Amino acid sequence: MSLTAFLLFSFSSLFAVVDPLGGIPFFSGLTSHMDRRRKRRTLIKALITAFFILSAFTLLGRQLLHMFGITIDAFRIAGGVIFFGIGLDMLQSRPRRWRTGIRTSYAQDTEMHPPHEDHDDPAITPLAIPLLAGPGSITTVMVLTPQAPGQLGPLFVLGVVALILAVTGVILMGADAVLARLGHTGLKIIEKLMGLLLTVIAVQLVIDGVGPVIRRMIA
User: Fold this and answer.
1) Residue ranges of domains in the chain
2) Alpha helices in the chain (DSSP H)
């Protein structure tokens, strides 16, 4: 894969997984009680946290796989299965399974501990984890890094991560304007298109993972 093709593939994969447009209602709901300055501060904190988390898995992902004796082919297959589930959720407009539990816990904690200025900070959880740096995006960077061309592969992935998070920050900061312009119907259409793209990527990942395994078995 050429560098241009890899960068385009990485950007589209990570954009579909992070799904900043799909996160607009989520972000708006969590920050509805904040003024614009505090929203910006919360979002920047979430973006920085997410970048450090994804950077850690980009740079140390191979070592983690090696430590647990996991091959990259196995991780590609697992990633494909995860992506396929995420894509189906998006196509069927169902709540994301990895977000629902966090949202429920957050709601229950809010009921038990009424929010106040110092305590009610959703920047780390659930915005950074798992909205931006969740299982899907972590799996994406770990799968993409070994596929990157050349010795600077991890740096290319980090560049894509930074670009995606920057775009996400711009989109989420303008969440109210985007909601007003696109409406819920427009967001659902975009979500379904992202879901379709993600399911196709998932199938390709499974094919890339299963192919070498089959070749080793028949060799």
Assistant:
1) 3-218
2) 3-18, 24-30, 36-67, 72-91, 97-112, 135-147, 153-173, 175-218
